[in-house]
């Protein structure tokens, strides 16, 4: 059985959906896993706390599944060095977090909506995986930055990937990915409309005026977002079934060193197309 550590800030429905999906797949026998703990960087006693209600719902779900919940408030931890030395603060926070988690055994740590930058030592201590909303050779940054860059580049394809967390933020080796076309039916008319807009406005102006509601942007985001859960589940299943293994921060597929990311497009796109 694959032992998972689950790291989440628990700030919205997406965090609950991720946890619920994995637990449902476990209950149905699809995933041979156990979540050893859920770690959250809030204890939900902080003020101000605009996501308190959402996080209460997340904590209630964790307890309902009888998963140990470990919290360490980033807002109240070492305020003496928070503003003066962020790197030292992050290192101290990571040290305290690892101490609290030391009694748990895990094979893989999953960053499932975890919004705090993980310190270097924690990345070395644990094999942590995270989702990035782009293809392995695609743009870096937030999902918003990624999509605007795809439009700027007149891209033909979008994707999402699971990568290993390393000292270089968002630069760890890609482990798995899913790609999908952003051309053809459902897209061509949106691209045509975008080209018309670009005759009289810059992309930055369109971005400022329409933002995430711009139709091409919104469609790319929608079709990427609905693949995130299936990719996470498919990736965890690869580890749980023994097809993927981690050793000394390196990934192996069926016993051979993984020299490039494992393509799960067929599985993920098939599950989405079958909705």
Structure summary:
The protein has helices at residues 13-27, 52-64, 79-82, 86-101, 120-125, 143-152, 188-197, 203-210, 215-240, 265-273; strands at 2-7, 33-40, 69-71, 108-111, 128-132, 157-164, 174-181, 244-247, 250-253, 256-257, 262-263.
Number of strands: 11
Largest sheet: 8 strands, mixed
Low-confidence stretches: none
Average pLDDT reading: 92
Number of helical elements = 10
SSE pattern, N- to C-terminal: EHEHEHHEHEHEEHHHEEEEH
Using the CA coordinates, give the radius of gyration: 20 Å
Question: How many domains, as an integer?
Answer: 2
Secondary structure layout:
Elements: E1 2-7, H1 13-27, E2 33-40, H2 52-64, E3 69-71, H3 79-82, H4 86-101, E4 108-111, H5 120-125, E5 128-132, H6 143-152, E6 157-164, E7 174-181, H7 188-197, H8 203-210, H9 215-240, E8 244-247, E9 250-253, E10 256-257, E11 262-263, H10 265-273
Brief descriptors of the model:
three-stranded antiparallel sheet, Rossmann fold, 10 helices, alpha/beta, 43% helix
Word description of this protein:
The protein contains 10 helices and 11 strands. It is α/β, with parallel strands linked by helices and 275 residues long. It has 2 domains: 126 residues, 3-Layer(aba) Sandwich (Rossmann fold), CATH 3.40.50; 138 residues, no CATH class. It is globular, with a radius of gyration of 20 Å. The chain starts with a strand and ends with a helix.
């Amino acid at each position: 059985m694959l032992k998972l550590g689950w790291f989440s800030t628990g700030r919205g429905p997406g965090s609950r959906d991720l946890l619920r999906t994995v637990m449902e797949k476990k209950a149905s026998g699809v995933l041979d896993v156990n979540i050893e703990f859920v770690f959250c960087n809030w204890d939900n006693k902080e003020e101000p706390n605009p996501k308190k209600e959402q996080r209460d719902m997340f904590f209630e779900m964790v307890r309902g599944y009888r998963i140990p919940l470990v919290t360490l408030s980033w807002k109240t931890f070492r305020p003496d060095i928070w503003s003066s030395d962020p790197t030292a603060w992050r290192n101290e926070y990571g040290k305290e977090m690892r101490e609290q988690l030391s009694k748990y055994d895990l094979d893989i740590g999953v960053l499932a909506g975890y919004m705090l930058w993980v310190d270097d030592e924690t990345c070395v201590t644990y094999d942590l995986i995270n989702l990035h909303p782009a293809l392995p050779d695609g743009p870096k940054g937030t999902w918003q930055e990624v999509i605007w860059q795809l439009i700027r580049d007149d891209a033909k394809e979008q994707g999402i990937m699971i990568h290993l967390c390393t000292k270089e933020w968002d630069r760890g080796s890609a482990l798995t990915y899913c790609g999908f076309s952003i051309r053809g039916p459902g897209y061509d008319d949106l691209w045509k409309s975008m080209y018309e807009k670009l005759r009289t406005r810059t992309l930055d102006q369109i971005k400022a005026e329409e933002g995430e509601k711009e139709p091409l942007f919104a469609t790319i985001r929608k079709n990427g977002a609905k693949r995130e859960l299936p990719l996470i589940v498919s990736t965890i299943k690869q580890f749980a079934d023994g097809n993927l293994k981690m050793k000394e921060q390196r990934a192996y597929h069926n016993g051979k060193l993984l020299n490039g990311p494992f393509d799960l497009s067929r599985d993920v796109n098939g599950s989405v197309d079958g909705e």
